[in-house]
């Protein structure tokens, strides 16, 4: 009697270089592929979750839009191989256990996650399955370097990026990507009842604010590979020279692909290395390393998204949030053209150029003296690449509350940043065409005076 394998997809929405799917194909039994939509798990269950567990954060609106289309694309890729993607909703532990009983599966495979709540949930599910005599295995798929494998000479987690990245480069070369299973390599699917993806309401309707996302992106594994090939051929050589200029089409566009697992970091690493050994390749792979560093921090400091890594910042004198002020920042109506351009790019496209992310974040936390968590929450909801590690690490880096943080006295001057990186105003004109006209708002704060206030505020905790 057949003993199917369950492959549980999460943030690995691809068939290529998917170790869990590869293992199921190698096992040689019928395969049940499942995606579980879980916003119902009870994190008060102390038998599963520790006191430090922050819970698994629901995805924001832009990420859900992406997920809907990426899951559709994944279903198509699986269908081409004789497999079906089953959609189930509810507490993941209950859904997976129920699906195993329903199918009499002999094995359940998934790829690892690195947040504390995710790890604790996965460990609990693995333990329960093994107690029931079911093979349960997890795999390294979405990070080049497992967070527990890299330590300082003193045996501690890294807190500074440069030595962390040096350790990564000195570690064994990341494995080569696994091939996608072919139709002939898959024993077949076991058909089980499925919910409808459309019933989960991942797509906005009233109002439909996703027009700019549709114009900018085509989610899915095939599109991810096409974009990587285009970047390797046309953008990689100039990456180091042009990456800081937001009007240039110089970025890889890989961040949402990696976030949702349409592309693995192993595919990116070897694809870029095979394409070029030039300076641009080293510079780009360093950015991949920055993503790795974020997960290294998240693994060792699980409350990275909610608590200051530097305890001194618990006493920082943030301004009370003024809804009007925060709203003008969110809507790109601050009266500072480069800031407004970035915030409008974010709303329209679901991403923001990395240089401008730093400028807009610095403006919020330093010129407006608003808590970094307010900005992080807005980015979480509006970024298609909203990543639980990178998003929070980057906000803490700009605020100065995290490890390897920018010096507290570094306040990005938006006007100087615009002169240096958008000299001819192409980026600003694209998103803020009314800048400089009578209808454009006056600056929400004086940049010079707000910088002085920020430095004074940071001085209050300087000695802590």
Automatic annotation (TrEMBL):
Q: Where is this site: Electron transfer via tryptophanyl radical?
A: 318, 372, 395
All copies of the Photolyase/cryptochrome alpha/beta domain together span: 3-144
SUPFAM superfamilies xrefs: Cryptochrome/photolyase FAD-binding domain, Cryptochrome/photolyase, N-terminal domain
Indicate yes or no for the key word Nucleotidyltransferase.
no
Which residues are recorded as binding FAD?
239, 251-255, 284, 385-387
Is Flavoprotein set as a keyword in this record?
Answer: yes
Pfam families hit by this protein: DNA_photolyase, FAD_binding_7
UniProt-listed GO biological process terms:
nucleobase-containing compound metabolic process; response to light stimulus; response to stress
The record's remark on the cofactor is: Binds 1 FAD per subunit.
Show the InterPro entries listed in the entry.
Crypto/Photolyase_FAD-like_sf, Crypto/Photolyase_N_sf, Cryptochr/Photolyase_FAD-bd, Cryptochrome/DNA_photolyase_1, DNA_photolyase_1_CS_C, DNA_photolyase_N, Rossmann-like_a/b/a_fold
Molecular functions per Gene Ontology: deoxyribodipyrimidine photo-lyase activity; DNA binding; FAD binding
Keyword entries, A-Z: Chromophore, FAD, Flavoprotein, Lyase
Needed cofactors, names only, are: FAD
Q: So what family is this one in?
A: Belongs to the DNA photolyase family.
Please state what the protein is called: Deoxyribodipyrimidine photolyase
Q: Which source organism does the UniProt entry give?
A: Subtercola boreus
The top of its lineage is:
Bacteria, Bacillati, Actinomycetota, Actinomycetes, Micrococcales
């Amino acid at each position: 009697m057949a003993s199917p394998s369950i492959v549980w997809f999460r943030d690995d929405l691809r068939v290529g270089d998917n170790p869990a799917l590869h293992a199921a194909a190698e096992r040689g039994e019928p395969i049940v592929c499942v995606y579980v939509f879980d916003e119902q798990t009870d994190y008060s269950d102390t038998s599963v979750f520790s006191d430090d567990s922050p819970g698994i954060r629901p995805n924001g609106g832009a990420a859900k839009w992406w997920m809907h289309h990426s899951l559709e694309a994944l279903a198509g890729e699986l269908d081409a191989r004789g497999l079906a993607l089953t959609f189930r909703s509810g507490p993941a532990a209950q859904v997976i256990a129920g699906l195993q009983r329903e199918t009499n599966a002999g094995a359940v495979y998934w790829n690892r996650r690195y947040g504390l709540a995710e790890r604790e949930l996965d460990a609990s599910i693995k333990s329960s399955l093994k107690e029931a005599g079911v093979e349960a295995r997890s795999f390294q798929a979405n990070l080049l370097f497992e967070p527990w494998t890299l330590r300082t000479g003193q045996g501690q987690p890294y807190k500074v990026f440069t030595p962390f990245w040096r350790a990564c480069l000195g570690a064994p070369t990341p494995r080569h990507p696994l091939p996608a299973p072919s139709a002939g390599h898959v024993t077949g699917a076991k058909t089980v009842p499925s919910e409808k993806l459309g019933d989960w309401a991942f797509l906005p309707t009233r109002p439909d604010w996703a027009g700019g996302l549709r114009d900018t992106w085509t989610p899915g594994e095939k599109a991810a590979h096409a974009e990587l090939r285009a970047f390797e051929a046309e953008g990689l050589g100039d990456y180091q020279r042009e990456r800081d200029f937001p009007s240039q089409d110089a970025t890889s566009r890989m961040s949402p692909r990696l976030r949702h697992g349409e592309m693995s970091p192993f595919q990116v690493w070897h694809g870029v290395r095979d394409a070029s050994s030039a300076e641009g390749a080293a510079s780009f792979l360093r950015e991949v390393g920055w993503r790795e560093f974020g997960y290294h921090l998240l693994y060792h400091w699980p409350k990275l998204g909610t608590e200051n890594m530097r305890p001194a910042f618990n006493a920082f004198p943030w301004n009370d949030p003024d809804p009007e002020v925060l709203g003008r920042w969110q809507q790109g109506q601050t009266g500072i053209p480069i800031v407004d351009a970035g915030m409008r790019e974010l709303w329209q496209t679901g991403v923001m150029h990395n240089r401008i992310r730093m400028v807009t974040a610095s403006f919020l936390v330093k010129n407006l003296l608003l808590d970094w968590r307010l900005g992080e929450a807005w980015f979480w909801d509006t970024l298609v690449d909203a990543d639980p590690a990178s998003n929070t690490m980057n906000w803490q880096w700009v605020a100065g509350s995290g490890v390897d943080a920018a010096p507290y006295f570094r306040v990005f001057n938006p006007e100087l940043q615009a002169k240096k990186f958008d000299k001819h105003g192409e980026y600003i004109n694209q998103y803020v065409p009314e800048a400089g006209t009578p209808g454009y708002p006056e600056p929400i704060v004086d940049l010079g005076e707000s910088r002085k206030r920020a430095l004074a505020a940071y001085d209050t905790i300087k000695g802590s």
